[in-house]
Amino acid sequence: MSTEKGLKLVDRDESGVDTAFRADVLAGLSQSPKAIPARWLYDDAGSQLFEDITQLPEYYPTRAETEILTDRGEEFAGMIGRGRAVVEFGSGSSLKTPLLLSAIKPAAYVPLDISGDFLRASAASLAEKFPGLPVYPVEADFMRTVELPEEIAGLPKLGFFPGSTIGNMVARTAVDLLRNMRETLGEGALLLIGMDLIKDEDVLVAAYDDAAGVTAEFNSNMIRRINRELDGDIPIEKLRHEARWNDEHARIEMHLVTDEPLGFSVSGQSFELEAGESIHTENSHKFDRRTSNMLLLAGGWDPVARWLDSKDRFSLMLAEARPNRCAP
Ligand code: AVI
Predict the structure, then answer these.
(1) How many whole angstroms from 119 Cα to the centroid of ligand 1?
(2) Could you report the per-residue pLDDT of 159-203, keeping only the tens digit for each?
(3) What ranges in the chain are assigned the alpha helix state H?
(4) Is there an atom of ligand 1 within 6 Å of 282 CB?
(5) Which residue's CA is the closest to the ligand 1 atom numbered 9?
(6) I need a surface site. Which of 66, 121, 238, 247 has the fewest CB within 10 A?
């Protein structure tokens, strides 16, 4: 086992291949329909492409959530109160996190991220913006329960999970994560979580299939990574990006589709795609009031408040980890 970027433990074989990546890709290409977990979209190039996506005219979630954080600061302060320790699941966005911290004046800020380098850089820039605010970065996989720093043990907590990243998980993974967050933060904690909303199919598809082709590039970067790191020969130019609305599951799906039969190999194993077949690379679930409430409740959180942007595209939900009570 080797250590990459601080605590980010990556299992590599003797030739330096990330064994979890290889296992996921080989298993995903062997099943029908073919699917590869979206987490592998985010190598350095993929993370940069995602940053570019957030600036696209069609990609509304970042702007809509930022608008809520900008306009509703006083309401957040009223409901959340001052003096909490803000625990952010992820390294923090240079734009959204300062808006929240300015609004609620917390007693400490704890960003959790698996990528140590990114975590330290964003924690340092935040500490510079908020002199006097104690910042305790923690390198950890927030999908599991995390031990929080001693220094914030006595403080009430607010979890912050913006961006509707929860939507990239299937329901059972999302529920596991919410339960782990509850365990990490403890009873009485609050959670402020971004959830993108179900809307017109054309608007959703355009947000995930932009005119400039940045999302297509983001999607095919997964194949570039497979070819480079796993000795693959998948013909990237034969796979076209497709964003599909799956109404049954209320989600946008990203696929890479071939119009002709393809044969290729990855790590010495051969695979075939039939004409019209795809590799499914990402889900982005969308919510309405009932489904977002239900997801939070299933994860052990009671919804307390909900804010939408001025065009009703995106929601920020506030929920509380209440003690388990007898129910009828
Ligand atoms: C990170 N996540 C919330 C993005 C989303 O909207 O589901 C990822 C993304 N994929 C394509 N565009 C954006």
Answers:
(1) 20
(2) 999 999 999 999 999 999 999 999 999 999 999 999 999 999 999
(3) 19-30, 44-53, 61-71, 73-80, 96-104, 116-129, 171-185, 201-207, 214-229, 289-298
(4) yes
(5) 50
(6) 247
